[in-house]
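seq as requested:
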Amino acid sequence: MSLPSLKDYSLIEKIGSGSYATVYKAFKKGGSREVIAIKCVDKKSLSKSAVDNIVTEINLLKVLNHDHIVEMKDFFWDEGHIYIVMEYCDGGDLSNFIKKRHKLSENICSRFLQQLALALRYLRSNNVSHMDLKPQNLLLKTKPALMLKVGDFGFAQHFSDTEQKCVIRGSPLYMAPEMLLRHKYDTRVDLWSVGVIMYECLFGKAPYSSSSFQELAEKIKACKPIEIPKGSHISNQCRDLLMSLLIHDPEKRISFEQFFAHEFLDLEHAPTKESYEKSMKLSQDAVKMDSEKNYKEAFYLYCEALRYIIPHLKNEVDIKRKSALRLHVNNYMQRAEKLKEMSYDTCEIEASKSNDKVDKIHVLKTAHHENTSFCSKELRGLSKSTPSIANALEIGEIGDQYFSEGNYALALEKLQSSLSIIVPLLSKEPPGRRRDLLYKQVQLWMKEAESIKGLLATINLQENNVQKTSDSIEQCLIQ
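struct tokens:
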């Protein structure tokens, strides 16, 4: 079958097709020969609603501009067709990406979900709902780095958070229950779709995979519980987000604000222009505090800077910039470790001044309370009458001990476990000395937990680099 002939573009091959449109890989004649994609829409096959969808898609793509949304470069028409010229995504779509790999690792899933969330946050800021989120409409670019981009805005609508509609739009398998059952719905339908996409990424199939629309509708009507496939293991953070998205009742489903703030996505540290600027500011502040001998604050700032820099290092493709970022990461990690050692050395010096053996142990833990996060003797005493708080403080102190020994993974686990108990209790704690000390302790442990995340991210990065180098050497030896 011959390819269509266009005056200004050379079509190379067909790369996709739908009910009324075909997509071709192409390049513009006489220019830079940049590869692009052209969506050719057959006017004769268009119903009135399909025409409305095309008009909506063009109008939206004219104004939407985001790294994780497919860019429309131009559009034109002739007697028989409408042509939409878009950026070319060489990695195909997420659906094929999943099928080739059967299922995706949690790390890859979190990366794609983070990029999708960035696009959705931008769309929400413009009061736009996509209404047809599914793996087939999430395109991938592999050069210069793997990147997800939201495409196909044919069903998208300008849609404020307070509006409600009842027209069915999208694909049944990814459609929110309230839409599928023809109830009134709002922007939260996109969040259900994200949950289905996330489930499919992790387990290789949609939660309500069905052989027919009727079977799917019956499962939705019955509010059949979403189950994690047997033998599958995902982190608590991942499970929490997944189950918060796949809630049948939209009133109980996670909100957009909660979704964007969820720890599994960690949008705060995503590799954006804003986070890069923040990493540079934190780095400068850390060096300043260090030079002023405010070592405690310098330590926290170095660790926080690492959390912002590392995603950029992973994402960077320019060799020189990547090398510069890696140097920053190594320097900040080494200095943070040195500052931690200095802090504990100071504590040991204080402890050595005591003649009493028992007191020496206590001093070793508490002499520098203002410079570490060890629980104070007074707070422990005030908490003896409340076993839940006393136990939580003990767990936190164990986390501190792991931290001092450099066992960061266990330290973070213990601190998070302690905080998960103390924080809810703190909200019910009556005013008084114990509440003040608990609040101070919570702030210190939260800060320490965030610092540990920066250290762990750096260690994981270094271990991955060592593994890649080892694999490369082994491959060379095999050859």
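The chain has a mean pLDDT of 87.
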